[in-house]
Every structure is written in structure tokens, then in C-alpha cells.
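Please predict the structure of the following assembly.
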Amino acid sequence: ILNVEQSPQSLHVQEGDSTNFTCSFPSSNFYALHWYRWETAKSPEALFVMTLNGDEKKKGRISATLNTKEGYSYLYIKGSQPEDSATYLCAALYGGSQGNLIFGKGTKLSVKP
Amino acid sequence: DGGITQSPKYLFRKEGQNVTLSCEQNLNHDAMYWYRQDPGQGLRLIYYSQIVNDFQKGDIAEGYSVSREKKESFPLTVTSAQKNPTAFYLCASSIGAGTGTEAFFGQGTRLTVV
């Protein structure tokens, strides 16, 4: 059974702090890594989809890196704002899985003003 | 506005009854998915469909059934055979299964069995 691990489970930071989370996944037969942001009472929204080893993507103050050989991805938030408070999900897609994204349990971020 | 719509938002069911959760998308996506979330757990795949009139079991399909008669619609039936149906259910769609493209999610249905 493929297992995607996220750490930490939850995180409390002050406004202005920079922070990062980790997503670990089995690297064998890996195809793609997704990051989603899930705000309370809303739908999960995609942040990034990455496939290549060494990929680095950025959207505003949020960026992500991917290491497919060792099986991990980091999500960075620079200068956290209260509106960044959400649960951040990562999900891995494997070759031949026909679309079965394996989700981690998420990292819940709370940013205090 | 393009998007994916789930209804109802909250659903209560008596034990032993079947119930159907609706999922509709107007994004012209081929692939659609049903996930279940339980407290402290990641999203787990129930069923997915890559194309109309075709669907595949996910990791936890027992006690559930689906249909895909139209591209826009992928209803999920929670049957009385599902032993622990109380959960939060999320529907999603993507351009194509296995393409690595992002999934678009509905707002979810919270099912409670009373």
C-alpha cells in the first residue's frame, strides 16, 4: 500500500513568519506530485502539479520543490499572512495508477495576526 | 461560471437506507472521482471514472456504487452494505485520469447516519 506522509500535522506561526512543510512519498514508479490548499468551508484548490526531479514552482509567496529520487517535496510560504491559514494537502500520482491520487493527511497551518 | 457542484451539503440517513450524493461538473472534464474523508485521515478514493459509461473501483469501494451515464454527472450511492457511512464526501474532476493535471473539487457532502 502506497503511503504519502506529511509533516508537521499542524503548525502555528505569527504573521510575517516564513514556514515550510514536508511531503514524503514512495519514489518507485512516481509520476506526479500535487499540492492543494484547503480553506475551511471551501473546496480544495490546486497550488502546484510537479513531475520532474528538481522541479521548482512559485505562485506569489508560495513555492514548492520536488525531489523524485529521494521521494520528497517541500512547500514554502514566505511572510505568512492570516489568509494563508488552511490545510495544505499533497498527493502523489503513480505510473499505471490510472488517476488514483494518493493523498497525505495534510498540514494545518494557522497564522496569527 | 465553470465548476463542480455537489449536493446536498448535509445529508442525514437512517441506518439501512441507501442514499445518493450528486456531483455535476461543467468543465468538460473526462475524469471524475469520489473521495471520502474521515477525521485524522487523508482523502481516500472510492471510485473514479475516466470516461462516460466506464468507472473503476478505488481503494475503498465496498458498500458504494456509481454510474457515469453523462459526462457531466457522477452520482455516488451509499448503500446499506457500507458499514461506516458517516463521513465527509468530496467529488472531483480533471481533464483526464493519469495525466497528472490538477483536480478540481466540489465543496463536499457531509453524510450522517442516524
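The interface with chain B takes residues 4, 31-32, 34, 36, 41-46, 49, 51, 89, 91, 93, 97-106 of chain A (CB under 8 Å). Residues 39 and 86 of chain A are 5 Å apart (CA to CA).
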